[in-house]
Amino acid sequence: MFKHESIETNSGMLIVLTLVAISIGGLVEIVPLHYINGTVEDVKDPTTGLDSVRPYTPLEQRGRDIYLREGCYLCHSQMIRPFRDEDLRYGHYSLAAESKYDHPFQWGSKRTGPDLARVGGKYSNEWHVQHLTAPRSVVPESIMPNYPWLKATDLDMSDLRDRMIALKRVGVPYSLTTVEYDANVKKFGESVAKTLDINRAEDNLMAQAQAGNYDGNPANVSEMDALVSYLQVLGTMVDFKKFDEDYFIQFR
Ligand code: HEC
Q1: Helical packing angle, 201-212 and 58-69, nearest 10°
Q2: Within a 10 A sphere around the Cβ of 2, how many other Cβ atoms?
Q3: Could you tell me if 206 and 221 are in contact, meaning their C-beta atoms sit under 8 angstroms apart?
Q4: Nearest one of 141, 129, 149 to 232, comparing CA atoms
Q5: If you placed Cys at 107, which of 10, 38, 79, 186 could pair as Cys (CB 3.0 to 4.6 Å)?
Q6: Which of 144, 229, 234 to mutate to test the pocket of ligand 1 (most atoms within 8 A of CB)?
Q7: Are residues 20 and 104 in the same domain?
Q8: Displacement of CA 194 from its chain's centroid (Å)
């Protein structure tokens, strides 16, 4: 039999045995996730039977790109853990389903600022514009950087289509063909399916920016429009009021 001492004094053996132990542990943890039904919850709206979680609209998706470009994830997580204190502060813990169309997901590991997984609807658009442009004008003790260029910069839409096609390749159900569009109508309903149609992406983006007027300036579509539209949808897709309090426990 091995003596513990002989393993610890032989670094080659220690490395090999460590790798074996970690691999077994890893496989035991990871492999079942690919087989257990409900690892990613199937969340359907109880009144309509349609999927609650939908892919981002073109405007929201571009806002998300800006979120990544500016490195907001360095200070903000987007995952509420199933602990009482988090639940009280941020709301219902995050479901896996809520980030199933996120590539890459923004769960994060650093909270210099608060979690943003359910920030949608918490503040008005005006508040976000003011806060992003000059955080200390609304929260005097804030250490968040100013992002004054967002409102002044027109949103680049030149590669919108390519970006959506890239996301489609990794499994986000944006549609190109009529067959794909019809499948989306079944899954998400017609009004959502329209926003997921790559062929109408630019029109959809303009329409949402104009209707939402997120940055308060209807004359142009700015990066601020896109970012605020993204922040305002975070955590709003699943209406938790429609589910029993313990409905989601079955998936844990
Ligand atoms: C250096 C760290 C840092 C970075 C980078 C940062 N933030 Fe913040 N953020 C904070 C801090 C700290 C707060 C809390 C104080 C405040 O509200 O300003 C905050 C607050 C917020 C809030 C309000 C949250 C709430 O629930 O009250 C939003 C929304 C927000 N940030 C969005 C962003 C976005 C979008 C970006 C990227 C463009 C970003 N932040 C980048 C640190 C940061």
Answers
A1: 80
A2: 9
A3: yes
A4: 129
A5: 79
A6: 144
A7: no
A8: 20
Which amino acid is located at 56 in the chain? Y
| pTM confidence score | 0.90
Residue for token pair 């499994």 = 171
Q: Residues with beta carbon inside 6 Å of ligand 1?
A: 67, 70-72, 74-76, 112-114, 116, 119, 122, 135, 139, 142-145, 147, 227, 231
How does pLDDT run across 189-227, given as a tens digit for each residue? Answer: 999 999 999 999 999 999 999 999 999 998 899 999 999
Question: Is there a contact between 59 and 225 (Cβ–Cβ < 8 Å)?
Answer: yes
One-letter amino acid identity for 23? S
Query: What total number of domains does the chain contain?
Result: 2
- Residue 205 tokens read as 């983006």
239 is written with which tokens? 């209406």
pLDDT bracket for residue 1 (50, 70, 90):
low
CB atoms within 10 A of CB 96: 17
